[in-house]
């Protein structure tokens, strides 16, 4: 029987595969690939990869010394023995992760398999007992370079797909990561929030050099959604939509100092972490306070991640402001019916859930990087270097906590609006019921008048001397009118008997109320 690891991971047989299997007792996630990725038919291995080897030169900027689109060629390059100068700063930028690449990197750089699993997981949470989702470690096991040599940073890209989205169930077809759609005023927006990961592993050599292995996600080019074949079918079919996304509102603002921007006059593409990291390492590394240090790749990665979170904060602020704007400066809320309020409440629930996830992901990054959970200290801002990231993530944490509190307030306001809309609808239903009751009373009165007339006419029609124009025709009215009066009096007596259970007032008031009801008048004052 085939090993469950081979069926799920497809890692080539060898020493690293054996390490993968033996360590699954320490990390249960190593036993299986992410089941959500399998259900979503995420390609494994990926359809394409990009690999670049950058090396720090004497000019204090990184230069590309090799690039590959085939894992086999890259593996040969590493095994050649002369690929990495261990006295230099090296960076391997990698886009796309597959079994052959895991075996190549893991074996050559002696990387713990959990590093790859951290990057591979796409399911954020799951209640299924058999699923092994993107769970974390104890905070004491988080610290990068203290406890572990690798770290995974979760972040989000806000992009405009410039297309009509089919539904809410979306993911990136290449990476399998969730794509969050947003609804504004009943319509799905073309702007989506793409979940991303950047995983960084540092190898430090005794010769004084280092090697960074940076795993990144491919850019969004295809949206994958699952739709039911029919309304009654439980079978889903895959539907991919090609998109040509653009960064939301142009993307994040460049974080390097403006005097450096004036000198370089070039900005990041903002299409992927792969291209943005290469841009900063090759053009701006010399502008760092310590350009020859080993922290440059991690520093730029942190800055890019923080910039994406700031762009996400702007989008969420806009979304919440639109919702509050719809509730403000209104003379009345009559245009909000129950269905519209329920839809608005559902959207707020989605935003509140997402904001909780964003806060958790930011705090996860802060734990891994050893950043204290406290409000940013603005008393020494003028003394901080632009390369500093502690205050950035403290500010982002504070900002998203503020947005979460704001979403909770809007949620409470929406519940109040739902109560108002429900009361209004109940009042409208009550008024409609009263009008229907008045109409029925009028019809009843008409019936009380015509039923005696019809009965008397039927009775007298048996004799021709009571026909209209005959001498005894007056007897018809002398009989009919007393019958009408008797029937109406009988109705009033029954009406009085019904209402006397709820009222102790006199019969004259009841009679006024009954006759007012007949003719659609206002209810008589019984006080």
UniProtKB/TrEMBL annotation:
UniProt-annotated location(s): Membrane
Alphabetical list of InterPro entries matching this protein: CorA_TM1_TM2, MgTranspt_CorA/ZnTranspt_ZntB
Keywords carried by this UniProt record: Membrane, Transmembrane, Transmembrane helix
Chief location: membrane
Keyword Membrane on entry: yes
Membrane-spanning ranges: 442-461, 473-494
Gene3D superfamilies recorded: Magnesium transport protein CorA, transmembrane region
GO cellular component, one term: membrane
Topology in membrane: Multi-pass membrane protein
Taxonomy, superkingdom: Eukaryota
GO molecular function ontology, one term from the record: metal ion transmembrane transporter activity
Protein name: Cora-like Mg2+ transporter protein-domain-containing protein
